[in-house]
Amino acid sequence: MTEKRRRIARKLKEVIDPELGVNIVDLGLVYDILIEDGHVIIVYTTTTPGCPMRRYLQQQIDKALTGIEGIDSAESKLVMDPEWNVDMIVPDVEFFAVPPPQLNQ
Amino acid sequence: MAVFQFSNKLLAGFMAFAALGLLTGLYAGLAKLGFLGDINLNIPGGLHGPLMINAFLGTLISLERAAALEKRWTLTGPFLMAVSVVFMLFVDLQYGSWLFTIGSLFVTLTLLHICFIQPKIYHYIMAMGGASLFIGNLLFTMGAPVFEIVIWWMGFPVLTIFGERLELNRIMRPPKKAQWAFVGFIAVWILGTALLHFSRIHGWHLVMVSTLATAIWLIKYDIARKTIKSVQWTKYSAWCLLSGYGWLVLTGIFGLMYGLPTAGPFYDALLHMVFVGFVFSMIFAHASVIIPSLSGKIIPWSQYFYLPLILLHGSLVLRILGDFSGNYMLRSTGAWINVLAILLFLGGIFTQIVRNRRK
């Protein structure tokens, strides 16, 4: 993993799924981080296509991507294939280990 | 194809209609109990059910799904539900009924679309919730009395929430057998609802067995058992969820003991144990995550939110005691405080959003 991808992943770890209290990277919702020149595409999913949190997560992802050094532009792309499942969660992750996002506002 | 993005303002506009449905629905509820005779808003008590189920819950739940999918056609459901509020209040219930019936058909199609993307059992359960609303609405519009179709209406929020909880609780990794048992309970619910038209007592008993079994399942497997040790909104949400399941257990027990009359205090008690005790607890539980998603506004936590929750449950206990003992005064007092608790919750949400903005 390049340094730039690591930096982006670290920023994405700040995005917390409010229903589960786990960041979206550890939840396995971020499928790919594509970098082409200075443009970044985040390929991500939600736990279900009907997830009411989807807009909130997208807003938080877009916010996290602003102000990362070496990135000119960024976009997030929602995909439903492959389907997310619980085996994609990082092993031994602790749910609600991080405070709910309201605490950080 | 260009992606059409819903603006927060557009979604907030729909939410305003849901709020109008809720407030007028609550007003109609009080009018039904014989109050507010001196304030003539011309909202008859008979609108209580249609307003609460369709104008409020129908608009809100279908809006959540539309916001998740962000496809223009999925707004048809919430749009028709929202328009039906205006027709019910200012034109005629019959026109309003047709609008929310067609609206609920679109809600069902939206939910089926989710099944098409991911054919999973929890999505089918939610779609059955939509279909339950549609069937109830169609029968109502064609002239069936509320007591005959109310369990179809009840199926909408209840099956929606059951499907959502089964989906979310995948992270608890319940055993496969337990997951299939859950699906079996849902099948019993639907079978019971249909059977109600032929044998009211047997159909109702099946619905109650399903309610009791599902509630016990949720108490055993829901993540709320863990998150109740958390803090702030997360802890609060867990209290709401578990207390809501508690009301379902009580509904199951009393429902099996007393059956479902076609009117009167027992009918009132059983329906409100589900609609107020369970459904409103779920609304309180999810408001802190749903509202930011639909409006873009974060709701800072406050201990205050325990007040409306305690009032909601406390007043429901009063109301049920009033119903069971034939004490009309107690029942009315409980109903009034039910409304007050909901208004205090909404007021708290509104105040916290405004405060946060000022900061």
Provide an overview of this structure.
The complex is a heterodimer of chains A (105) and B (359). Chain A has 105 residues and is an alpha+beta fold. Chain A has 2 helices and 5 strands. Chain A has helices at 3-12, 54-65, and strands at 16-17, 22-23, 30-36, 39-44, 73-78. The longest helix of chain A is centred in the middle third of the chain and has 12 residues, at 54-65. The termini of chain A are far apart. Chain B is mainly α and 359 residues long. Among the domains of chain B are: 1-119, no CATH class; 224-353, no CATH class. Chain A binds chain B through residues 18-21, 46-56, 59, 80, 83, 85-86, 89, 95-96, 99-103, 105, and chain B through 6, 64-65, 67-70, 111, 114, 117-118, 120, 122-123, 126, 167-168, 170-171, 173, 223, 226-227, 230-234, 286, 288-290, 292-294, 296, 298-301, 356.
Q: What is the topology?
A:
The complex is a heterodimer of chains A (105) and B (359).
Chain A (H helix, E strand, L loop, with lengths): L2 H10 L3 E2 L4 E2 L6 E7 L2 E6 L9 H12 L7 E6 L27
Parallel strand pairs in A: 4-5
Antiparallel strand pairs in A: 1-2, 3-4
Chain B lengths: L7 H25 L15 H22 L6 H16 L1 H25 L3 H21 L4 H23 L7 H20 L4 H22 L2 H4 L4 H27 L6 H31 L10 H20 L2 H31 L1
Helix pairs in contact in B: 1-2, 1-3, 2-3, 2-4, 2-6, 3-4, 4-5, 5-6, 6-7, 6-11, 7-8, 8-10, 10-11, 11-12, 11-13, 12-13
